[in-house]
Amino acid sequence: MSHRPPEAERLPALAEPGGELDRLLRDGVRTVGAGAVWAVGDAGGTLGGGSHGVLGQGPYVELVPGPDTLYDLASLTKIVALWPCAGVLRQSGRLPLDEPLGRWWQPAAGHPSGTVTVRQLLAHTAGMLPRTRFERRYGRDLAAIRAGVIAAPLHREPGAAVEYTDRAAVLLTYLVEDLGGAPLDRLAARWVWRPLGMADTRYGPLDTAATARTAPTEYEESVGAHLRGVVHDPSARLLGGVSGNAGAFSTTRDLARFLTALLAPPPQLPWGEAWITESLREQTGGLAPARGLSWLYAPGTEPAEGTFVHYGFTGTGIWVSRRLGRWALLLTNKVHYDRTTQPLTDLRNAFRRAVFG
């Protein structure tokens, strides 16, 4: 029996080789200046996809992206690792969403972070400092960074504004690891990636074989080369490569499995239907920009449309709409070339309009 609702019937035609989406991406990567891999699908799986351009400059100019190309997900790590792990803890009764942290998580007691809730952290309304600057503030010792993040002053009153910050994800990483009894990479593999058959998805640094199929990111002065197989995000790199804010690598084929599961959660998934439903609704109390839990309502859409997105700084993006029963992904390594964002923003918005309206 097909999982596809009637309103999804237009999607296969859009996704055909040489079809509207393929042409859009072909023309778009010329403007963006970075190669891209894309895919769209529904609750039944992938309906179509493709790739255009090359993986980079210099030694990478002969390499083309494909469904098995590993991309540094950057902030998509928040979605494919941290968010579902929080969901496992929530659904098992170990993670209160609305009790201030200081009342039930001893490390936060007596600190400003003790006044915020998990819901506020996931919705980016906790009022945490907007920038990480971990090394400058706390040095390189991991214990000192953890203590500094937990004890840091708040930027504003919790619940007063929506302000996206990696600090929320790092604080949640410490919390999830404490409650889960293991580092985040092990929890994500156990609860998320292995159950969904996401065999490519992992934290770096990557081994030689995996690095050979990884899209390079930005030139790093300290190593005298483009980063490849090593996390681009400096905060996650400082934290050893494993963090809730960044650090994971994945492929189109794995992310397709993940996004399909959001529309048709396997019954054995420990962060399944209830967590997905709760997360993919408005959680910011009318504040703008409207967000769910971890997810952002797609720019250019209204919350009632129910189209959610999350981006990664390296040039990645994923979208999902349970109302329309469809998902999409677009992976680039834009930072390999430069940090000019407008061409990629324009392409992302055009891609979203084509797939979701």
Strand fraction equals 5-15%
Report the count of strand segments.
11
Helix content: 25-40%
Low-confidence stretches: none
Straight-line N-to-C gap: 26 Å
Structural class: alpha+beta
Largest sheet: 6 strands, antiparallel
Number of helices, counting only DSSP H or I runs of 4 residues or more: 13
Radius of gyration: 19 Å
Helix-strand pattern, N to C? HHEEEHHHHHHEHEEHEHHEEEEH
The strand order across the widest sheet is 2-1-11-10-9-8
Can you tell me the overall shape? globular
Average pLDDT score: 96
How would you describe this protein?
With 357 residues, this protein is α+β, with helices and mostly antiparallel strands. Helices cover 34% and strands 13% of the residues. It is built from 13 helices and eleven strands. It has helices spanning 10-14, 20-32, 77-91, 118-123, 134-138, 142-151, 166-180, 184-193, 208-211, 234-238, 252-263, 273-279, 342-356, and strands spanning 36-42, 45-52, 71-72, 202-203, 219-220, 225-226, 248-250, 296-297, 307-312, 316-321, 326-332. The strands form three sheets. A six-stranded antiparallel sheet has the order 2-1-11-10-9-8.
Break the fold down into its secondary structure elements and pairings.
Elements (H helix, E strand, L loop, with lengths): L9 H5 L5 H13 L3 E7 L2 E8 L18 E2 L4 H15 L26 H6 L10 H5 L3 H10 L14 H15 L3 H10 L8 E2 L4 H4 L7 E2 L4 E2 L7 H5 L9 E3 L1 H12 L9 H7 L16 E2 L9 E6 L3 E6 L4 E7 L9 H15 L1
Antiparallel strand pairs: 1-2, 1-11, 3-7, 4-7, 5-6, 8-9, 9-10, 10-11
Summed up:
By secondary structure, the protein is α+β, with helices and mostly antiparallel strands. It contains 13 helices and eleven strands. Strand 10 and strand 11 form a beta hairpin.
